[in-house]
Amino acid sequence: MQSIRLRRRIVLVCSLVVLTTVRCSEEPLAPPRVPGQFTLVVVSPTNDDGAALVELDGAGVTSVGADSAEVLTDMRDGRLRVVVARRSPGPLVLTLAVRDTAADLDAVLLEVADAADAPRPSLAGYTIEIRK
User: Fold this and answer.
1) According to the model, what pLDDT value does residue 29 have?
2) Residue 92's closest CA among 47, 45, 36?
3) Which of 4, 7, 74, 102 sits at a 20 to 30 Å CA gap from 35?
4) Cβ-Cβ contacts under 8 Å for 128 (sequence gap 6 or more)
């Protein structure tokens, strides 16, 4: 009788140890990735820009496009450089397809050109707006 109780206790203790080990080693599940699109807008003080050079953290970007503009891309060291050039001056807007819409998107404006393709002397007053 005593040996049965002892065996039950041993089995119970072993079960608790195993359950505790398994439960403690579990990491929380990451939320599922949801692919989608971001819109990147170069907010301009002049609204008559011809082109811009933007650098993005390109890890999650799968494609880049624009209406009424040419788009050129170059990926280096995990950074995606994008040139957007309009046929006629106007707003510079990019559509970015991404793997995960929950991830943050980092963007830096490097250069802007006017309608005559001359570089702007300063980026003062320019910002980048990213819409999810």
Assistant:
1) 73
2) 47
3) 74
4) 40, 41, 42, 43, 54, 107, 108, 109
Q: What is the DSSP string of 93-126?
A: EEEEEES-TTS---EEEEEEEETTSPBPS--TT-
Residue found by looking up tokens 């890890």 in the block: 59
Contact 45, 125 (CB under 8 A): yes
Cα–Cα distances in angstroms (integers) from residue 8 to residues 5, 14, 61, in the given order: 5, 10, 57
In which residue are the tokens 């503009």 written?
A: 69
Domains of the chain: 36-131 (2.60.40.680)
Q: What is the pLDDT of residues 76-111, one digit of tens each?
A: 998 999 999 999 999 999 999 999 999 889 999 999
Cα 81 off chain centre by: 14
pLDDT band at 58 (very low <50, low <70, confident <90, very high): confident
Q: Are 40 and 93 in contact (CB under 8 A)?
A: yes
Element (H, E) at 4: helix 2-25
